[in-house]
């Protein structure tokens, strides 16, 4: 009996609730339902909007990052290309500046030769020589001479396919016939492995020697050409009853600072 009453009361409550809802839906204004739906949907819209904004922002940032990364890679490539071009330009400019005087000298005196870059220098007590970047592949051969403008620098003693060895006039193995420009006193310029000094030997006491006079190659011996400067007299004396002057000659050019020399065949300019 009690269970039946409870069931009836339950069904009655459900019917009343439905009737109440129908009444509200029928007699209440429609904006009430809209307000109720809006209130229920608002949190979902807010959360969805926030998530969508975050996703869009992340996508925009990702696109911006990829664009910046690509631009950075392009800028890096352009920078490296510019650096390589600048290095090549400066290297070419250095070669032009270094060989400009040699080219002008060749044109002025109509001398044929091979400009050569000095790769290595050894100027010490063990010997004085250059290694230059011109060898037998460039028609360089032994006993060609190295000059710089009107100055004699040395002689090729070894010619390899891609480079050559040039012994300088200051080396102890070097001997060049020369004479003083003002008094024409003949002698032999000999190196003795001093960086800026040679000995002008076998100059007879019968000849006058002047301070700071230039010593010029005479061309005797068929190795070195005539007419190139070997240096200037920086020291000389002669003792009583001696047959020869004691003379030191200093090259006019700094052999340590040269970057290029001109290699020539002395037979082609014997009459220079």
Computed structural class: alpha+beta
The main β sheet shows up as: 6 strands, antiparallel, barrel
- Fraction in beta strands: 25-35%
CATH topology value of the largest domain:
Thrombin, subunit H
Q: Unreliable runs, pLDDT <50, ≥5 residues?
A: none
Order of helices and strands: HHEEEEEEEEEEEE
Number of domains: 2
Distance between the termini: 148 Å
The average pLDDT value, as a whole number, equals 80
Number of helices: 2
Globally, the shape reads rod-shaped
Helix content: 25-40%
Q: Care to count the β-strands? A: 12
Explain the layout of strands and helices:
Layout: H1 2-27, H2 30-109, E1 114-124, E2 127-132, E3 145-148, E4 151-159, E5 164-168, E6 175-180, E7 186-194, E8 197-201, E9 214-218, E10 226-237, E11 246-250, E12 260-264
Antiparallel strand pairs: 1-2, 1-12, 2-5, 3-4, 3-12, 4-5, 6-7, 6-9, 7-8, 8-11, 9-10, 10-11
Task: Report on this structure.
- This protein has 272 residues and is of the alpha+beta class.
- The chain starts with a helix and ends in an 8-residue tail after the last strand.
- The mean pLDDT is 80.
- It folds into 2 domains: 1-85, no CATH class; 114-269, Thrombin, subunit H (Beta Barrel), CATH 2.40.10.340.
- 39% of the residues lie in helices and 30% in strands.
């Amino acid at each position: 009996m009690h269970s039946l009453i409870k069931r009836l009361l339950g069904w009655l409550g459900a019917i009343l609730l439905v009737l109440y809802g129908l009444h509200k839906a029928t007699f209440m204004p429609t904006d009430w339902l809209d307000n109720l739906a809006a209130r229920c949907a608002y949190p979902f819209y807010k959360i969805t909007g926030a998530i969508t904004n975050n996703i869009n922002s992340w996508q925009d940032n990702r696109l911006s990052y990829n664009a910046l990364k690509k631009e950075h890679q392009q800028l890096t490539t352009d920078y490296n290309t510019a650096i390589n071009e600048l290095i090549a330009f400066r290297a070419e400019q250095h070669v032009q500046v270094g060989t400009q005087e040699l080219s002008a000298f060749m044109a002025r005196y109509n001398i044929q030769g091979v400009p050569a870059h000095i790769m290595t220098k050894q100027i010490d007590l063990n010997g004085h020589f250059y290694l230059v970047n011109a060898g037998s592949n460039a028609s360089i051969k032994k006993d060609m001479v190295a000059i710089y403008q009107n100055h004699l620098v040395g002689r090729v003693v070894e010619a390899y396919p891609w480079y050559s060895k040039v012994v300088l006039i200051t080396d102890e193995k070097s001997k060049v016939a020369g004479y003083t420009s003002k008094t024409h006193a003949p002698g032999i310029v000999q190196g003795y492995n001093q960086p800026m000094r040679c000995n002008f030997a076998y100059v007879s006491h019968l000849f006058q020697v002047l301070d700071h006079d230039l010593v010029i190659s005479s061309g005797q011996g068929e190795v070195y050409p005539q007419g190139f400067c070997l240096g200037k007299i920086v020291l000389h004396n002669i003792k009583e009853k001696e047959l020869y002057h004691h003379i030191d000659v200093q090259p006019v050019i700094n052999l340590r600072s040269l970057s290029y020399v001109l290699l020539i065949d002395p037979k082609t300019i014997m009459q220079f």
